[in-house]
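U., I forgot to send this yesterday:
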Amino acid sequence: MFSTTNTPSSMQQYENIKIVALDADDTLWVNEPIFQQTQEKLRELLSPYIEPGQLDGRLYETERRNLRLFGYGVKGFVLSMIETAVELSDGKISGREVKQIVDMGKEMLDHPVNLLDGVKETVEALAEHYELMVITKGDLFDQQNKIARSGLADYFKRVEIVSEKDEATYREVFGRNGIRLEEVLMVGNSLKSDVLPICKLGGKAIHIPFHTTWEHENVESQQADGYDYEEIDNLRQLIRLLNPRKSPALKDREVLIEGRGFRLRRFSANDVSSLAFHANNASIAERLQDRFPHPYTEADARQFIEYALNAEMETVFAIEVDGEAAGAVGIIFQQDVYSQSGELGYWLGEEYWGRGIVSEAVKAMARHAFSDLGLRRVYARIFSNNIASRRVLEKAGFQFEGMARQAVVKNDKVLDVFHYAILNPEM
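Result:
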């Protein structure tokens, strides 16, 4: 069984982790698509000799048969391509065409090391708090070369390049390096190689699916049943999950409440279109700071979601209505002597106004701030042209504390700012 929710309880299971072990290919950088592109070139080269669809299954069988001799990696793949080409062409393939296959392999070995999204910043962030290591399988020279060219080598204390990734291999690697199983977290894109062997040993693993997987690494769903591991969308989410700096925003939960007709949950990359649609409204923008743009494009939505998922000092939830991200509500944590206060902000798509959704969302955030986050005070600043927000705050128990006169210039209009706040009743 695996979980994709990021709750405080799920993060507690990583409190003893001291070492983060990372797979390399298709976890840190792009790999499998390069093999697929080369296979497509081979298919074109062999088109005079074979029928369409004849190559893939035959090549995989050759690769699988040769693993015990050649191991994983580009060189073994090239030898298997040549063997398959000779067999499928019934020996008719020319020396010139064999040379072309060899050149394909050289191109693969020289291919730039393209880091996946968020890898560099994640490795940098985690290296400050954890000992990082790479555990990858493949050709020794090729993998060492990719690690060196990736620009990440200095972040890793240990690099293990192995011929196979199974229980016996992990047991040997950890034992040889003096690593206690309960202190290591394995992270990778392959259930078969990176996750299940660790789970079977009783350790902790995180799965980051890659959009394409080599057939040899595929695992049937029933093979993963019964094993406890986390699954995240990209490596960057590891920062939130492990929360190395123990920032309150990063350790916050994935879903806050399931309300009546709505819920508060974390944003995801799938929210870009709906967020842009509901936010692109002048009636909303005129009541918010200029950092909330108008027009509001999908690029703006994508940038905001990226920020919301990684902000260390602001916890932000999407207001989901009818299955869409139709608004947002969040608390900005304050620093220094104001560290027990948080500033509340919120907005909702106009078509959902008047349903009481924002009032319930604000109440939920206030309860959350006090009972879960330990804040003493939550406050909000609203423009004098936002009468509806005054009613929302008053319904939620916020009290008027004063007015900053002519404090804002918005759309060439000078506005006052009303200050509201609510205190933790337990303090």
